[in-house]
Amino acid sequence: MTEKTKKTSPATSPLLKDNSDGVTTLTMNTPARLNGWTMQMMDALKEAFLIAAGDAETRVLVLTGADPYFCAGVNLAATLRLGHPRKLHAMIVEHNRALFDMFLDFPKPILIAVNGPAIGASVTSATLCNGIIASEKATFSTPFAALGVTPEGCSSIHFARLMGEVNANRMLGSEGWKPTAEEALEAGLIQWLAPHDTLLEEAQKIARDWIDSQATRTFRGGSILDELKAVNASESQALADAFLSTPFIKAQFTFLWSKKKWGPAAMFLSMLITRPLWSRFL
Questions:
Q1: Can you tell me the distance from the alpha carbon of 103 to that of 79, in angstroms, rounded to the nearest whole number?
Q2: DSSP structural state of residue 74
Q3: How far apart are CA 89 and CA 217, in angstroms?
Q4: Please, where are the H alpha helices in 213-261?
Q5: Can you tell me the mean pLDDT for 235-251?
Q6: C-alpha dihedral (118, 122, 127, 132), degrees to nearest 10
Q7: Which residue among 17, 73, 138, 276 is least packed, with the fewest CB closer than 10 Å?
Q8: How far apart are CA 124 and CA 231, in angstroms?
């Protein structure tokens, strides 16, 4: 008999939670914002991960998104706040490192069920989990080169281990390759492909198989935790440097202005105009 416990799904919650037969499923639930990682979403994920880590009824964690997107990545306009340059730099380092350490330090198997487009940190963090299953509607994009920033989420070393140097460079470099789910499966970025309508059903089967086989928390590609944590720390420093560079700030302003997001665009314009002054204090 199937036993369900601890099901919560208020429509206004940024993160829906459900536990069934030892499998806890978290669903990012801000589809109007493409499930982007705002501070609210990241705080909700952090709390849910902490609870699941200590919950005896959670044997496997599944993370997915409310259609149509899986996740549009970190919403910079909703997370960056103007302040003293050194404090801002330190905040970027701390938040980026903590985001990926949340995945790295989770002590139980994690399965990512990608239901739609996945961008940036939502892709790199997924590769730090035990496995990735995707629907045919999924795509995978890591547009770091286009944004003028450095790789994050350990992708500087981990991508090549999963899919080879050529494909890693295609995704992380200037080509900006955005593989479909089928292409991602062929390349080795993901392990399973499922029809969109049965994605979560298939994810549950995999998770229960892991429970039956007493699977433990592992990392793909032969990577080990201590190494990945060190890479994450190093990448976070480099990323903070890039985020405060002129090319990145200008690119963010141009993008946000083109989307008529006047408030966030104004923040980056202010940073751009005043950068010659505040950059002296980095």
A1: 19
A2: B
A3: 32
A4: 225-243, 246-258
A5: 86
A6: -50
A7: 276
A8: 13
Instruction: Decide: residue 4, CB within 10 A, 0-12 exposed, 13-18 middle, 19+ buried.
Output: exposed
Residue with token string 């499922």: 194
Distance from C-alpha of 124 to C-alpha of 70, rounded to nearest angstrom: 13
Written as six digits, the tokens of 153 are 């989420």
pLDDT of residue 41: 95
CA 264 to chain centre: 22
Backbone phi, psi, residue 36, to 5°: -65, 155
The token pair at 96 is 């980026």
**Amino acid making up residue 157:** I
Give me the residue spans of the domains in the chain: 4-244
Classify strands 118-119 and 192-194 as parallel, antiparallel or unpaired.
Answer: unpaired
Q: Which residues, listed in sequence order, are joined to residue 112 by a DSSP beta bridge? A: 63, 132
**pLDDT digits over 164-214, tens only?**
999 999 999 999 999 999 999 999 999 999 999 999 999 999 999 999 999
CB atoms within 10 A of CB 115: 26
CA angle 226, 227, 228 (to 5 degrees): 95
Segment among 92-96, 221-225, 278-282 with least mean pLDDT:
278-282
**Among 35, 71, 41, 79, CA closest to 267:** 79
Among positive and negative, which fits the CA dihedral 55, 106, 35, 201? negative
Separation of alpha carbons 47 and 68, rounded Å: 24
The third-level CATH classification (topology) of the domain covering 4-244 is: 2-enoyl-CoA Hydratase; Chain A, domain 1 (3.90.226)
Pairing verdict, β 4-8 and 15-20? antiparallel
